[in-house]
């Protein structure tokens, strides 16, 4: 029986694996020892701290370790932690495995101080006591402070900076609540804050003056030169708009309500001289003078009818153009509102009335469907005159007395006609062109409207007079011989 030859390739691989295993065990042992050393250092610090507390609290102390400097080193004998006494009290420094001082904890004269550095030796974070409050700083890549958390008498503050360490924003406590501030070139450019009446946003111009203000109460102000020139606001009735001059005087207002809108233009004395609006009673435009007295108005009433009014400086209406149930109407009045002239109309045509100082109609001009009539007189006394013309009749001029029409002059197809009427309205005398003969004729009637006298022209062109008895049955004739 023979023994097999040893496999040298297998022995080499086994040896290599064994060496790797020993190396891994060595690394694990080193890390374990490192943890033990750090744990021992921390335990020493705890023991020292506890000993200090015990030394303070209890007297006497049997075992006390005192030193001004405590160093913790790694396996390469490099310092990785240092506890020492400094100007403002104790200080602890930590180094990383590259020998960089990466952390420091100590006192700064007003309290504690913590600083962290990166491997480039640049500070990346600091936390320290700042008087009666604290401050936390996080540095940017360039080394400047990128974010800072601090506090003051009003509360906490968060400050954000750009890559050049210039502050660009803050979150801080305001008088009533929180504030967010956007900063440019060291000045506030915008502020978003909380107030007891709601939120508030303020934008500032390049000189640090307010240019825009938005309030949580429902108001937006645009400001220039410290004067509010534009305001948009909400009220219990609706929205509103205010436009002002550079000196803050209101020149234009707009208001919205459930009943309608209102626009007003103000003069230099802040008087609303022009107003345009709508409501439940209609809509229109109103013009006022400097004394806030309406002198002109144009509008539409609740029924959709238009109207125009003009007044004197005291507000007394002197003229109006309105729509009535029969058409348009124009009224002109004196300085006390008493009518002088009225112009209107109905389905028959136009109508003009002229009043005297007693407000009595003294003249009229009206359309009569297919004709017209002009009258002048005193209405209360029923005296005056009229001129009337119709398409289906002659033109008539009438003169009225206290008892009615007394004189009538007409233009007929045969020529002119004159009637003189008695108190009963009957024709007493009639004169005009004869209808049944040549020339003119004059007829006289009695109180019973019976012709009793006739003066005319016969067929021969001679004048003649006929006289009748009271019943008009007998006559006597007088003619040329």
Structure description:
By secondary structure, the chain is mainly beta. It has a domain at 23-55. It is built from 1 helix and 38 strands. The chain has one helix spanning 8-57, and strands at 69-73, 79-86, 89-95, 101-107, 112-117, 123-130, 133-139, 145-151, 156-161, 167-173, 178-184, 187-195, 198-204, 210-215, 219-224, 227-234, 239-244, 250-257, 260-266, 272-279, 282-288, 294-301, 306-311, 317-324, 327-333, 339-346, 349-355, 361-367, 371-378, 383-390, 395-401, 404-411, 416-421, 427-433, 440-445, 451-457, 463-468, 475-479. The chain has a 38-stranded antiparallel sheet, with helices on one face. The longest helix is centred in the first third of the chain and has 50 residues, at 8-57. The radius of gyration is 58 Å and the shape is rod-shaped.
User: Any idea what the radius of gyration is?
Assistant: 58 Å
Give the mean pLDDT.
82
Give me the count of strands.
38
**Can you summarize the main beta sheet?**
38 strands, antiparallel
Low-confidence segments: 1-9, 50-62
Q: Helix/strand-derived class?
A: mainly beta
Query: Beta-sheet strand percentage?
Result: over 45%
Assembly type: single chain
Gap between N and C termini: 208 Å
Secondary structure: helix percent: 10-25%
The total count of helices amounts to 1
- Morphology call: rod-shaped
Summarize the topology.
Elements: H1 8-57, E1 69-73, E2 79-86, E3 89-95, E4 101-107, E5 112-117, E6 123-130, E7 133-139, E8 145-151, E9 156-161, E10 167-173, E11 178-184, E12 187-195, E13 198-204, E14 210-215, E15 219-224, E16 227-234, E17 239-244, E18 250-257, E19 260-266, E20 272-279, E21 282-288, E22 294-301, E23 306-311, E24 317-324, E25 327-333, E26 339-346, E27 349-355, E28 361-367, E29 371-378, E30 383-390, E31 395-401, E32 404-411, E33 416-421, E34 427-433, E35 440-445, E36 451-457, E37 463-468, E38 475-479
Antiparallel strand pairs: 1-2, 2-3, 3-4, 4-5, 5-6, 6-7, 7-8, 8-9, 9-10, 10-11, 11-12, 12-13, 13-14, 14-15, 15-16, 16-17, 17-18, 18-19, 19-20, 20-21, 21-22, 22-23, 23-24, 24-25, 25-26, 26-27, 27-28, 28-29, 29-30, 30-31, 31-32, 32-33, 33-34, 34-35, 35-36, 36-37, 37-38
């Amino acid at each position: 029986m023979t023994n097999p030859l040893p496999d040298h390739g297998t022995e080499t691989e086994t040896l290599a694996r064994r060496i790797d295993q020993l190396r891994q065990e060595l690394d694990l042992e080193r890390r374990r020892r490192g943890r033990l050393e750090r744990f021992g250092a921390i335990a020493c610090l705890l023991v020292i701290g506890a000993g200090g507390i015990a030394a303070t609290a209890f007297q006497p102390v049997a075992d006390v370790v005192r030193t001004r400097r405590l160093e913790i080193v790694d396996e390469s004998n490099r310092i990785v932690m240092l506890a020492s006494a400094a100007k403002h009290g104790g200080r602890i420094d930590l180094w990383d495995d590259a020998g960089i001082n990466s952390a420091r904890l100590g006192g700064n004269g007003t309290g504690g101080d913590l600083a962290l550095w990166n491997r480039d030796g640049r500070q990346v974070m600091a936390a320290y006591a700042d008087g009666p409050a604290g401050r936390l700083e996080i540095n940017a890549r360039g080394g400047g402070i990128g974010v800072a958390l601090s506090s003051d008498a009003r509360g906490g503050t968060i400050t954000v900076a750009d890559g050049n360490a210039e502050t660009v924003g803050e979150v801080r406590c305001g008088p009533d609540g929180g504030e967010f501030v956007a900063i440019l070139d060291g000045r506030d450019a915008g502020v978003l804050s909380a107030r007891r009446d709601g939120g508030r946003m303020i934008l500032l111009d390049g000189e640090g003056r307010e240019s825009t203000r938005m309030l949580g109460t429902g108001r937006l102000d645009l400001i220039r030169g410290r004067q509010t020139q534009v305001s948009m606001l909400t009220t219990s009735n609706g929205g509103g708009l205010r436009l002002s001059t550079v000196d803050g005087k209101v020149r234009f207002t707009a208001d919205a309500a459930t009943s309608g809108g209102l626009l007003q233009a103000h003069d230099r004395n802040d008087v609303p001289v022009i107003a345009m609006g709508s409501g439940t009673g209609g809509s229109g435009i109103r013009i006022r003078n400097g004394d806030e007295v309406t002198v002109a108005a144009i509008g539409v009433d609740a029924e959709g009818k238009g109207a125009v009014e003009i007044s004197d400086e005291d507000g007394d209406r002197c003229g109006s153009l309105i729509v009535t149930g029969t058409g348009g109407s124009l009224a002109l009045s004196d300085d006390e509102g008493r009518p002088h002239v009225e112009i209107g109309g109905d389905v028959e045509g136009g109508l003009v009335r002229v009043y005297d100082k007693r407000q009595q109609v003294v003249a009229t001009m009206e359309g009569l469907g297919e004709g017209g009539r002009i009258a002048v007189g005193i209405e209360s006394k029923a005296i005056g005159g009229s001129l009337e013309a119709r398409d289906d009749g002659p033109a008539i001029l009438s003169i009225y007395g206290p008892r009615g029409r007394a004189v009538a002059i007409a233009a007929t197809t045969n020529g002119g006609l004159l009637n003189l009427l008695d108190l009963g309205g009957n024709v007493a005398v009639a004169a005009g062109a004869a209808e049944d003969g040549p020339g003119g004729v004059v007829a006289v009637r009695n109180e019973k409207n019976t012709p009793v006298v006739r003066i005319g022209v016969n067929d021969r062109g001679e004048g003649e007079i006929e006289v009748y008895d009271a019943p008009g049955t007998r006559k006597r004739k007088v003619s040329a011989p």
